[in-house]
Request: fold
Amino acid sequence: MEYKIIERRMIVPNIHELVVEAEDVAKSVQPGQFIILRPDDKGERIPLSVSDYNPELGTVTAFFIEVGESTSLLALLKPGDTIPTFVGPLGLPTDIENFGTVVCVGGCFGIGSIYPIARALKEAGNTVHVLLEARSQYLIYWKERYEELVDSVFTITRDGTMGYPGHISLLPDILKEKNIKPDRFIVNGCTFLLNRTSDVTRASGVKTIVNMNPIMIDGTGMCGVCRLTVDGETKFACVDGPDFDGHLVDWDEFRQRRLTYYDEETAPLRKSGTGTEYHCKLIR
Amino acid sequence: MAEEKKKKSKIKPNRVNMPKQTPEERVRNFDEVALGFTEKLAMEEASRCLQCKKPKCREGCPVEVRIPEFIGLIADGNFKEAAKVMKDKNALPAVCGRVCPQEEQCEKLCIVGVKHEPVSIGRLERFIADWEASQDTLEYPKIAESTEKKVAIVGAGPAGLTVAADLVVKGHDITIFEALHEPGGVLIYGIPEFRLPKAIVKREMDYVQKLGVKVKYDFVVGKTRTIASLLEEYDVIFIGTGAGLPWFLDIPGENLNGVFSANEYLTRVNLMKGYLFPDYNTPIKRPRRVLTFGGGNVAMDCARTALRLGSDESHIVYRRSKKELPARGEEVENAEEEGVIFDFLTNPIKLVGDENGWLKGAECLKMELGEPDASGRRRPVPIEGSEFFMEADAAVCAIGNSPNPLIPRTTPGLKIGRKGNIEIEPETGKTSMERIWAGGDVATGTATVIMAMGAGRVAARSMHEYLSGGEQENDIYVKQ
Ligand SMILES: Cc1cc2nc3c(=O)[nH]c(=O)nc-3n(C[C@H](O)[C@H](O)[C@H](O)COP(=O)(O)OP(=O)(O)OC[C@H]3O[C@@H](n4cnc5c(N)ncnc54)[C@H](O)[C@@H]3O)c2cc1C
Ligand code: SF4
Ligand code: FES
Reply:
């Protein structure tokens, strides 16, 4: 099959926005689901969270970080090019109902993928606050889009160039300061952010939903590579998730499993001399 | 009587050997192990057939290939006619000749086999299919006038492909929906290149597409669209989604790095061509010492793949004895020749990891065989105090699969059996829902290619009957 690239641009350093024509997916996708694509006929199957979609135009938007051989191929795509595989929507949608007050936390590609979730939560009548987290101000995108949509938007940057300076561990204090009493947290982004946010919300006992991103192949429950332990039980992220209760995930095991192909994946990059300085938490 | 005796005394007791790559050579490549008969060898083997008046072998074939007839034609050197006789009953002979468990089916009943080695029916089937493919004169059946009936087929495995091929010639408009990016089901993602070259699967697929069948890849029914939504657009639906949900052993340590399901291991290598990494981008581990748990075809495929990926030691760990191995005889023999180490009567009870979460090995128990269980095989029972440790840096679970729950979960009203299988009426393939048929592994649990094709054929007949609202010639008879 062939799927046309409508747009591919680097939105902030190393993070690319990809818009693909895929009518069937655009018509059926819901917030929190993902797609799997292949950059070319020799490429591996790459899962990406869906960040936006337009059923009328038949387009689907996803963000990806350039971290390895396969994503560097994606980064070369131009409008009008085609890719051979684009399948979805996969996984279960994020639970949306009127919870009351929800804090959505997004980092990295998750700044994009939490957008349709925030939108749906608003539509369901929630008070929605969005926290965007990044290393520095220049890695934050779509802030204006969120400001138009939700009740409040705030940012944390590690170098303090935008919003609160520091780490996600500031979250409880920020919420106290702003007098926000959430009924639920929803987190999208790299493993590190999902894990740390779950840690800092644990004491409050407020349900924290994390959108997991393990290694995947088929995305239909066939291979089992995406398995993780939740509350002592093995789950397949691609069919039972990708959303899980962050307080019940076995994080050590999950981080470990993500590293399975670390040596193989980064080897080609090391060889070509690129990407060595960029340490992404998604892999690490 | 006297004549019969004379004939029997002339039987050549031994099979003609089929040339194979030597074990030393083949463990270093992914090329097909068996090289196939030459014309001369095929005629020689075919001449061992007694041309029985009441051929037993045929009773053993799930699709009733006219076995003595095609073998007789090979013996006479009339390959063209032999191929026709074969294709008449079996649309995928190149595949079946390679992967059918012949020793349990046709060859098991062969009269020559009573005293000697049975005629190599499977190898002759393979020969004639390959011969035909090499002729460049592929004949296409006539397609009936369009009925304007729309048929949706879910899954491009052997079951779905059979339904598609059977119904397209009747003039129906066929679309296959396949979740993966290539057709073939297990034939493409599971069974390795060295046993079933992907070019052969592709050849069969091209044939089906040339007949006018449309295929939509990257389409997960139950996700991209539901069965209910397809029913709005299509007159009838066939579900042939196979048994793709892998089982794990349910013992501690299964999520350690280095522990794979057979599906993952084989898919990385076969569908994604991980053995050609980094030319192909899907990575694959090349561990030193691999344990494969299980004893079926899937387990043999994994253990032999491990050798080809360069492991020093590849073990099959099986809880019963050699006699109970469910794999095809030929594959067990191939695995032995290639140096796979069999640890029979051994059962893993715990997988042990190092401080970084990587597999170090398996704690196992020795077993002995007790009373026969429901399947008629003697049940393995643990020997107390026999724990021992097997070192390994990779383990593959090849202990079975069940049907994928995606469609059952999203299709209210579809009756599902205890094991997650879609319930069907065996004589017709009809499910509990109007206008929906199913067959193959999704209905039976993991079975065989030929059984899936047989089920497809049964369903196709019933579907055509429904679509044409009436009677139906009974040319294709399939036993259950
Ligand atoms: C490694 C291995 C070795 C084997 N060796 C042998 C052998 O030597 N001899 C033998 O006879 N049998 C063998 N078998 C068994 C045999 O392959 C199966 O019995 C047979 O392929 C079943 O055919 P099927 O059409 O029912 O399903 P499958 O071949 O499983 O095909 C099902 C197809 O449906 C697709 N699908 C699933 N869900 C969906 C969905 N929701 N939407 C769209 N598409 C979907 C799948 O991607 C797949 O392509 C082996 C099996 C394995 C795994
Ligand atoms: S289809 Fe299978 S069982 Fe039938 S004759 Fe051929 S090899 Fe034997
Ligand atoms: S990605 Fe294969 S089972 Fe989830």
About this structure: Chain A has ten helices and 16 strands. The interface with chain B takes residues 1, 24-25, 28, 38, 42-45, 69-70, 73, 84-90, 217-225, 227-229, 234, 239, 252-253, 256-257, 259-261, 264-265, 267-268 of chain A (CB under 8 Å). Residues 69 and 271 of chain A are 11 Å apart (CA to CA).
